[in-house]
Amino acid sequence: MSSSSILRYKADYRTLVYVILYYIIAYAGFFVYWQYPELRTWGIVTPWVLLTAFMSFSSAVIVHNTIHSPMFYKKSHNKWFQFVLSLAYGYSVSAYVPGHNFSHHKETQSAKDNMRTSKARFKWHILNQLFFFFLVTPALIKAEKNFVAKMKNDKREWYNQWRAEMILVNVVRIGLLFVNLPAALLFIWGPHIYAAWGIVSTNVWQHDGCDVEDKYNHSRSFNGGLLNFFLFNNGYHGAHHDRPSLHWSLLPAYHEKNIAPYIHPNLNQGSMIKYLVTAYIYPGKRLNYDGGPYILAPKVADVDWVAELGVDDQAHKYDFGAEATSMDDILSTTDIKETNEVL
Q1: In the chain, how many domains are there?
Q2: Which domain holds residue 222?
Q3: What is the pLDDT of residues 323-338, one digit of tens each?
Q4: Which residue intervals of the chain are DSSP H helices?
Q5: Which of 21, 126, 205, 276 is buried most deeply by CB count within 10 Å?
Q6: Displacement of CA 140 from its chain's centroid (Å)
Q7: 339 in a domain, yes or no?
Q8: What pTM was estimated for this model as a whole?
Q9: Is residue 336 part of a domain?
């Protein structure tokens, strides 16, 4: 941890750089497309839009990180940063809390997990990956609606933050449509849609075919250097599920000590590209993590988890993003400490 900084971890200087780059790339693209018609060529617009989409997806990864482990010491700083992130991600950061922190992490792959991979039931496995987002989004929206209604009474400060983020995002995004419709669709709306699709779809390759009941084999991890450098160590998913509030910069060391020695080798992948090609293109078979045949779980209806939620339960003290209890004591659960490097 960094005691001389407003940041809890020095590694998050990289996070700040990414967010700044998103705003520069996205809004410069919007402005150039709007003001310089002569630059509206495939050779310029296409790579610019693709880069913007990647930066928006990176912002979605940062959203995931910050709702588990807020970046700043001060609560007010974390709340303001969620506004900044909401505009980079394209949706309220607070809205990520119910579907991910509660439904997914607390009830992984069960009927209470709105993002369980058994909802994707195509025989051609690549379709499960491509359409997963669309299959689970209705349940995520319903759970968010119910969660928001409950928080309006039970945790008003979280509700106020969510509402303010939603107002800000909608005013800005809709307003930009009136400034220049094509530019807004290309550089704002399109990348935001890609970011939402991408971050939700990671659930398939992180959990499909894994054993949720096993202490170690519940998640698929990817330890490739480039992936984890550019996406903030989010390849170490087994470690993340083991310690959801552990800062992303500490995940590799935790993985090496507490996950890698015990996990099935098929769940400790070195190359994400190699895995994706094998899983979805050739041979493209849906398999259990151990290489055995995949047995699709029975199709079941979603079970409401919101009604039984107790917001004062200590088990949930780290789960509300900027509204969470101080998370410094999470470090007592492991002897993995921050290095002196900006990782």
Answers
A1: 2
A2: 209-296
A3: 765 544 444 444 455 5
A4: 12-35, 42-68, 75-89, 96, 105-106, 125-154, 156-179, 181-184, 190-207, 225-230, 237-242, 251-254, 272-280
A5: 205
A6: 14
A7: no
A8: 0.92
A9: no
